[in-house]
Structure formats: C-alpha cells, structure tokens
Amino acid sequence: DAGITQSPRHKVTETGTPVTLRCHQTENHRYMYWYRQDPGHGLRLIHYSYGVKDTDKGEVSDGYSVSRSKTEDFLLTLESATSSQTSVYFCAIKKGTGGTGNTIYFGEGSWLTVV
Amino acid sequence: DAKTTQPNSMESNEEEPVHLPCNHSTISGTDYIHWYRQLPSQGPEYVIHGLTSNVNNRMASLAIAEDRKSSTLILHRATLRDAAVYYCILRFGGSNYKLTFGKGTLLTVNP
C-alpha cells in the first residue's frame, strides 16, 4: 500500500469547466508528483512539489496549476478543461530517507474525460 | 536527459526466467537505473533500482554492465501476474526524483 489516495477516480466534465484532482498521502512525505498518461506516450510529469507551498513545473505543465497548502494534499487544477486533457492522471510520492533508499510510489490513477 | 532503449515487446512462459534488456549508452556517472512496471489499469509499481552494482530484491534482480551502458532486469520465475509493461528509467542523481518514462517493454507471460 503506497498510502496514496486519489480523488475522484473517474470524472467526466465539459470543455471549459474547471476541474481539481486531489492527491492525499498519510505518511508526511515531502515530495509529491502529478503525471499524466496517454496512449502512445509514457507517463509525463506535469508538476511536482518538494514541500508545502514549494512547487515546480514538469514536462507538460501548460494548462495546469497545482497547490500544496499542507503536507498531505497535493491538488492539480485544470482551470478550463480541454479535450486534449482527457487522460489518466497519476499522483506519486517519494518515500525513503535519502541516498539509494528512495523510491517513488504511484497512486491508482484518476481517469478524466473532457467532452 | 539520457535515454533508454527497450524492445517493444517480449514473451515468456510461466515459471521460466525472463531477461528484460535495456540499453542506455549515454548514461552519466550520476544516473541511477530504475525499473518500474505497470499492470493494466494500475499505476506504475517500483521494481528495483541500482547505480553500479548488481542488485537483488524479492521481486527481481538487476544486472548492470560493467560500463553501465546496458542493464538487464531478471525475473527469476515468471508468473501470469508478471505480465505488464516494464519501464527502464535513468534518473539523474540531483533531479528531485523526476522520472522520465519511455514506452517500455510489454511482457506477455504464457501459461
């Protein structure tokens, strides 16, 4: 059990509406990540966070914003959803105490369809 | 980012060993080699990682070439549950653990 809960797990929304995906962890890990996965592509990093209110962009950040107001929650917001943002979204956390002992654990995914 | 090259697909028989290759000829000295797998409709799952030496854990073994330009993930006895996409990923040591996924190898396990 990675200790990650993503919500909602499935959502259908209309083009132009705002959408927020939530990633919740129970173990106070510092690093959290949002990835998206599309057919024909591997997972691609959207944004990540290295602490409360500390976030940075990933490879495909356009059209997305994030917030981390407390350690346990990392929110991904699509301000105005587009059909190109139809995807599976995975949250991940980094566990470990440093050095070679760190590993990344992924949540179960949030399936988002923008119609 | 240094890139990896993996076969698109491989097949194995149940209870036989599986050797999944990965080429990373442009690897740098601070790149860690990570392997993840992804079962259908699930998030990626950590398998193993290493830097220079071979590594073993309860899931698999990682064999790293002496020049580090290639590595092999070894599943000692494949089960049907091992059917998945396997990703070989290079992670720069100072990258805040950002992972760059390729398309991976689709492993099919035949009963």
N→C terminal distance of chain B: 38 Å
Q: Report the radius of gyration of chain A as a whole number of Å.
A: 14 Å
Overall pLDDT confidence of chain A: 93
H/E series of chain B: EEEEEEEEE
Largest beta-sheet details of chain B: 5 strands, mixed
Task: Count the DSSP helices of chain A.
Answer: 0
Terminal Cα span of chain A:
33 Å
Q: Which class best fits the helix and strand makeup of chain A?
A: mainly beta
Rg over CA atoms of chain B: 13 Å
Quaternary assembly: heterodimer
Shape of chain A: globular
Order of helices and strands of chain A: EEEEEEEEEEE
Q: Give the low-confidence spans of chain B.
A: none
Shape of chain B: globular
Total of helices of chain B? 0
Commentary on this structure:
The complex is a heterodimer of chains A (115) and B (111). With 115 residues, chain A is mainly β. Chain A is built from no helices and eleven strands. In chain A, strand 5 (43-51) and strand 6 form a beta hairpin. Chain A starts with a strand and ends with a strand. The model of chain A has no long low-confidence stretch (mean pLDDT 93). By secondary structure, chain B is mainly β. Chain B has strands spanning 9-13, 18-23, 31-38, 45-50, 55-56, 61-64, 70-75, 84-92, 105-110. Chain B has a five-stranded mixed sheet, with no helix packed on it. A four-stranded antiparallel sheet of chain B has the order 2-7-6-5, with no helix packed on it. Chain A binds chain B through residues 2, 31, 33, 35, 40-45, 48, 50, 56, 58-59, 90, 92, 94, 100, 102-109, and chain B through 32, 36, 41-46, 49-51, 87, 96-104.
